[in-house]
C-alpha cells in the first residue's frame, strides 16, 4: 500500500516532461549570420600548383581547363559555398588568390584579375 502511494506521488505526466525539455533547449542567443566569401584569382600570377584547391574545406575551387598567359591551368570558384576561411589565400605561394566578404573586393583585385563568386552554404 505504501509503495503504491510513493509511485503515484513521483509520477510526472509525460506531457509536462516534454514541455520542460523544450524550454531547456531554447537558444539563448541569435545564431551568427551566415559567412559569405568572394574569391578573386589573379590569372597572371597563378602557376597552377593546385594547393588552394586541395586545402579548401568546402570544395569551392576546381582547376580550369583553360590556360593563363604563362600556360598554366588556374582555379575557378563555384558560385557558392565559400566560408571565408582564407585557407586558399594562406597557402598560395604566388599570392595569386584573395578572398573577401561578398561585395567587398580588395583594392587592386578588380582590374586584371579574374573574380569568381561566392556565397554561404
Ligand atoms: S576562403 Fe576557404 S572556403 Fe573560401 S575558397 Fe578559400 S579555402 Fe575555400
Ligand atoms: S595556390 Fe596559387 S598558384 Fe597554386 S593554383 Fe592556387 S592560385 Fe594558382
Would you kindly provide a written description of the structure presented here, covering whatever features stand out?
This protein has 121 residues and is an alpha+beta fold. The chain has a domain of 80 residues: 2-Layer Sandwich (Alpha-Beta Plaits), CATH 3.30.70. The chain has four helices and five strands, in the order ααβαββαββ. Strands 4-1-5 form a three-stranded antiparallel beta sheet, with no helix packed on it. A two-stranded antiparallel sheet has the order 2-3. The N terminus is likely disordered. The structure holds iron/sulfur cluster (2 copies). One iron/sulfur cluster binds next to α3.
Shape assignment: elongated
The radius of gyration over CA amounts to 26 Å
Q: What is the string of helix and strand elements?
A: HHEHEEHEE
> Could you name the CATH topology of the domain at 37-116?
Alpha-Beta Plaits
- The CATH architecture of the domain at 37-116 can be given as 2-Layer Sandwich
Compute the number of helices.
Answer: 4
State mean pLDDT (0 to 100 scale): 80
- Looking at the chains present, what oligomeric state does this protein adopt? single chain
Compact summary:
With 121 residues, this protein is of the alpha+beta class. The chain is built from four helices and five strands. The protein has helices at residues 2-9, 14-24, 51-55, 87-91, and strands at 37-41, 61-63, 75-77, 97-101, 114-116.
Topology readout:
Elements (H helix, E strand, L loop, with lengths): L1 H8 L4 H11 L12 E5 L9 H5 L5 E3 L11 E3 L9 H5 L5 E5 L12 E3 L5
Antiparallel strand pairs: 1-4, 1-5, 2-3
The protein binds iron/sulfur cluster (SF4) (2 copies).
